[in-house]
Specification:
Order of helices and strands: EHEHEHEHEHEEEHEHHHHHH
Largest sheet: 6 strands, parallel
Shape: globular
Structural class: alpha/beta
Strand content: 5-15%
Radius of gyration: 21 Å
Strand order of the largest sheet: 3-2-1-4-5-6
Distance between the termini: 31 Å
Bound molecules: NADP nicotinamide-adenine-dinucleotide phosphate
């Protein structure tokens, strides 16, 4: 068994990501003890029933007392309020982290409430599914996925190394970058694709000449893959767009320009330009497979896996 990296891990918000961290940390022997808490009594009861934490407590303050690593796993819009609540109760020297899909706003909102005696190392595991809640988590979620750390300037490098070691033990590959850079990269690789999926599924639902049963019946033509992404948690994604506004709008502007160019190619029968673009995009798909970030299998051989 591996020597635990931390004595006590606190998971605040054991939904899909939080419960996967708890499961993976236990499977790898990464920590000695896991304490979890959730906002609703229903989730707390379910987590206790699943047995994925050693202890389930009622408040965020109780969860962080005596914890060496605290991971906040709630929607990004709620991270600031949670940090405010836990700030005064943190153990000196504790590492506080999160898993939010946006980093600039989380650094701003959480950083303001955390004491200097704690080490704040924000993180984003780029792994997920369209499912939510503690039942949806699984220990292998982070296997071979990237986890991006965005420590604010002046963060103790030892704390960053410790958190990186934790994520590696959970199966992830770790990279460090600035929160601003993270938000630009993720805007194009994750946030815009989700927005497109939400939009195309919404459009299909509104097309009057096509019946709902036809949309479902013929979905294998490409639509089906979008519906999986568009089934992602509404609150989580609402918060992502509201908190990464600038980068999303910038990328959306570029996307709309390119879409207009495509529209023009079709209108003017420019088959050569269409083929050239589609050849270029096919090569990108090949590079992703070569980098081990997906396989030819339609669902990556894992339960509904996709990256967020
Ligand atoms: P989830 O399964 O819906 O779980 C969310 C957890 O946060 C639940 O325990 C929920 O408590 C709690 N929560 C929700 N709203 C809250 C609030 N206002 N105040 C306090 N607690 C609240 O969500 P998830 O998919 O694990 O996502 C959690 C975080 O991970 C988000 O920040 C998201 O950006 C990030 N992330 C998600 C993915 C993904 O694919 N889903 C991937 C990478 C990162 P109750 O159950 O009691 O309501």
């Amino acid at each position: 068994m591996t020597k635990p990296l931390f004595y006590r891990l606190a998971i605040i918000g054991p939904g899909l990501i939080g419960s996967s961290i708890a499961r993976a940390a236990r499977a790898q022997g990464a920590v000695r003890e896991i304490v979890a808490t959730a906002r609703s009594p229903k989730t707390r009861a379910r987590v206790a029933e699943l047995g994925i934490a050693d202890k389930v407590v009622d408040t965020n303050a109780q969860a962080v007392e005596d914890s060496d690593l605290v991971i906040v796993c709630v929607p990004v819009g709620a991270c600031g309020a949670v940090a405010k609540e836990i700030g005064p109760h943190l153990k000196p020297g504790a590492i506080v982290s999160d898993v939010g899909s946006v980093k600039g706003s989380v650094v701003r909102d959480m950083g303001a409430h955390l004491p200097d005696s704690a080490h704040f190392v924000p993180a984003h595991p780029v792994a997920g599914t369209e499912h939510s809640g503690p039942d949806a988590g699984f220990a292998e979620l982070f296997d071979n996925r990237w986890c991006i750390l965005t420590p604010p300037e002046g963060t103790d490098p030892q704390a960053v190394d410790q958190l990186a070691a934790f994520w590696r033990l959970l199966g992830a590959k770790v990279e460090t970058m600035s929160p601003e850079h993270h938000d630009i990269v993720l805007a194009i690789t994750s946030h815009i694709p989700h927005l497109i999926a939400y939009n195309i599924v919404g459009t299909a639902a509104d097309v009057e000449q096509v019946t709902q049963s036809e949309v479902i019946k013929f979905s294998a033509g490409g639509f089906r893959d979008f519906t999986r992404i568009a089934a992602s948690d509404p609150v989580m994604w609402r918060d992502v767009f509201l908190n990464n506004k600038e980068a999303v709008l910038e990328m959306l502007g570029r996307f709309s320009e390119d879409l207009a160019a495509l529209q023009r190619m079709i209108r003017w029968d420019d088959g050569e330009a269409l083929e050239k673009l589609f050849t270029r995009t096919r090569a990108i798909r090949r590079s992703i497979i070569e980098a081990g970030q997906d396989t030819e299998a339609p669902d990556f051989g894992r339960p509904h896996g996709h990256d967020d």
